[in-house]
Hints:
Order of helices and strands of chain B: HHHEH
Largest interface: A-B, 53 and 42 residues
Oligomer: heterodimer
Amino acid sequence: LPPSTCDWRKQEYIIKSVRDQKNCNCCWAIAAAGNVEALWAIEQRTSVEVSVQQLVDCDRCGGGCTGGFVWDAFMTVLNYSGLASEKKYPFKGTFKPHQCRANNFKKVAWIRDFIMLQDNEQLIAQYLAIHGPITVTINSKLLQQYRKGVIKPTPDTCDPRFVNHSVLLMGFGQTKRTWTETRQGGTQGRPIPYWILKNSWGPNWGEEGYFRLHRGSNACGITKYPFTARLGKSTVRPVHCPP
Amino acid sequence: TSLMAQAPGPLPQELKEVFTRFQVRYNRSYANPAELARRVDIFARNLARAQQLQDKDLGTAEFGVTPFSDLTEEEFGQMYGHQQVPATALHMSRQVGFGPEAGEK
Lengths: 243, 105
């Protein structure tokens, strides 16, 4: 069983600052970059900031800032034998075709392969707790108005079949029990299990750039496309997520 | 005006104040008065929508003014989402992978 709480933001070397995709539809590239950075922090104990612009410029589908997919970002990492650093190949938030400069720079992080996890929140939590943050793609409809707290939508308010925004799953937990005073003496609310997700809209949005989504109800389609890169051998020693 | 009559939310004067605070906080300016009026209208609709989401949410989430409160749902989707993943986009099935340690194919 996975632990009851897990928060990779507390792990040493993990980059906690939140990127801002600005007017570029590159959430898919930022989520993939965040996944690679987190795995390097956990497995290699190295804090690397990789180039999102490389993923945007060198995407095989050439969608650039008009959209893309996390799995294509991972393909780009494989095709170019890794990612340059953010410092050398900085994010511009714009795209011009045929401007890929990946071969001009030394690579600071690379991956062995990438996988898609099962659409099961218990297994996703288990994988997350052992291996590190993963990317998920959700329906972003409710996020435009979101400020803080745990979103617990219904399929009517957030259709899980329509997903359009990739983010990084950083951990999970549950809210504390709440006590509501009533005439009869009070009722105790049940704790709400949640996922902790890192968005790419800057630190001024949501909970300092992060948000929480209900865990256990496929909220906003969170189980539809859970993807992660893998760095080393599959026999790598298990690591443990900070509670 | 028609919106004010039908949607819950702040009164016109309150709305003006809330919108001004939004503009200052998120450094928003608009090309002309017509655009400003349009954005105020969108802002008001979004506040009303946030209230509806608040009412329907089963968790502890708070919805309200955000950096995207002056955008329509369509604009927001175009600017900050990515393309929709159609059901047929992936020529693969779920059997492709969980990891060899978990019995992946």
